[in-house]
Specification:
This protein has 422 residues and is an alpha/beta fold. The chain is built from 16 helices and twelve strands. Strand 7, helix 12 and strand 8 form a beta-alpha-beta unit.
Length: 422
């Protein structure tokens, strides 16, 4: 079979869309509804999928006394009936993020054992719901997030620091909801699907300590505001409660999205190989590694015979070392590095995108590369290595018309990467 450029592009987009659709909040929530309460049902939540999850729950339980509030990213809100939806900033929190945390804590106050709290958590919740600890201000919290995002720390390491600088994360929301019954439904975007990492686990206590947070800050040389540093060095601060609070269910996850992508690949006549749902590290280094695997498939049929698609998930990092950067996210940086490493190798295409529809802070989910990506860029006066060095991958792909724009998908199971080799 001869693969045209357009056929390869269409196939990759179909595989990506199948992965995203598999994480539909409507289906995820509907399939995991708990027993209805004797009293009230208070719904709280934070994350890029929280509004769509709340809408599904409101529609499923018309006969239950449902109320509450969830916070999602600006542009990701949908009507959730009896459940209020608030928009806030991501990845750096704003005043609405702080307001959301305060309102959510108020919503779970004063409940009884007959009441039910359903917490709807998804990726992005850490920034969307903030309650600064100690004497920290919102400005301090914003500074912390900016430092973390440019440090090169993994998402799990970032969330360890965030939780210890918060009055709502790390299980604190769960404790505030007692004595009500608590059920947490999680759309996971983190490696390993540990619910304590998603949105920094507002209803799930974890084993991390202040020393762990201090170690991460030291390891990555992260500059913290004085008030934040004081919280992490407060020797009088009591350790988090280690008891498990309520029920927690992972209702959608990266591994399930990759399975759906693999099914779509098989239907397209390809051999799928899932390399893992928790690939981490520098985005540009991951691009180099993936180029090597793709070339091995093309030349030797190792580790899979072509035609094949290499599938992976997880969250790479982008470390800004020169103090400034252009536009782009981890997916477009990965792809530009992959294109440079492939250097025009024939028969290899790739698409990478964030399942929430937004790569970093831009308006695209990601992008797509072809065997002639570098040549097309050069013809336009765009030198890929220069744009890669400047962390300006979005600008490069915007010019070559290779960005993948889906708009907000209202879910979030992290990044989906697909490399097609024929």
């Amino acid at each position: 079979m001869t693969w045209s450029d357009q056929h390869a592009r269409d196939t990759l987009r179909h595989i990506f869309d199948a992965a995203v659709e598999s994480a539909s909040p409507r289906l995820a929530v509907f399939n995991h509804l708990p027993e209805k309460p004797k009293g009230r049902c208070v719904v709280v939540g934070a994350g890029k999928a929280s509004a769509a999850m709340a809408a599904a729950l409101d529609a499923a339980w018309p006969d239950v006394d449902v109320s509450g509030l969830v916070v999602t990213r600006y542009g990701h809100a949908v009507s959730a009936g009896r459940i209020s939806v608030l928009g806030a900033s991501h990845p750096v929190p704003d005043a609405k993020s702080e307001e959301a945390a305060s309102l959510i804590l108020q919503a779970v106050h004063g409940l009884t054992a007959d009441d039910l709290v359903i917490a709807l958590m998804s990726g992005g919740g850490s920034a969307l719901m903030v309650a600064p600890a100690g004497n920290m201000t919102l400005a301090d919290k914003q500074a912390v997030n900016r430092s973390l995002l440019s440090s090169g720390a993994t998402i799990g390491e970032m969330n360890v620091v965030r939780k210890h600088l918060s009055r709502i994360k790390g299980g604190r929301l769960g404790h505030a909801a007692q004595p009500a019954r608590l059920v947490t439904l999680v759309i996971s975007d983190v490696p390993g699907d540990d619910p304590a990492w998603v949105a920094s686990g507002p209803t799930v206590s974890s084993a991390s300590t202040l020393e762990d947070a201090r170690s991460i800050v030291s390891r990555y040389d992260i500059r913290l505001p004085e008030a934040a540093s004081a919280v992490l060095h407060d020797i009088t601060k009591k350790p988090d409660a280690e008891d498990y609070v309520g029920e927690v269910h992972i209702v959608a996850a990266p591994s399930l999205a990759l399975d759906a992508a693999a099914d779509a690949a098989i239907k397209a006549g390809l051999r799928p190989l899932i390399l893992g749902d928790a690939l981490e590290g520098e985005a540009r280094e991951l691009g180099i590694v993936m180029a090597g695997i793709a070339k091995s498939v093309k030349a030797k049929g190792v580790p899979v015979d072509a035609p094949a698609v290499l599938l992976s998930g997880g969250e790479a990092t982008v470390t800004i070392r020169n103090g400034s950067a252009g536009r782009g996210g981890r997916n477009t940086e990965f792809l530009l590095s992959l294109a440079v490493a492939l250097n025009g190798h024939s028969g290899i295409w790739a698409l990478a995108g964030d399942s929430d529809g937004i790569d970093g802070s831009e308006d695209a989910a990601g992008a797509l590369i072809t065997p002639d990506t570098l040549r097309r860029g050069t013809d336009m006066g765009l030198h890929a290595r220069t744009y890669l060095s400047a962390h300006d991958s979005y600008t490069f792909f915007d010019a070559t018309d290779d960005l993948v724009r889906t708009g907000p998908t209202l879910t979030n199971v992290n990044d989906i990467r697909a490399v097609l080799v024929v």
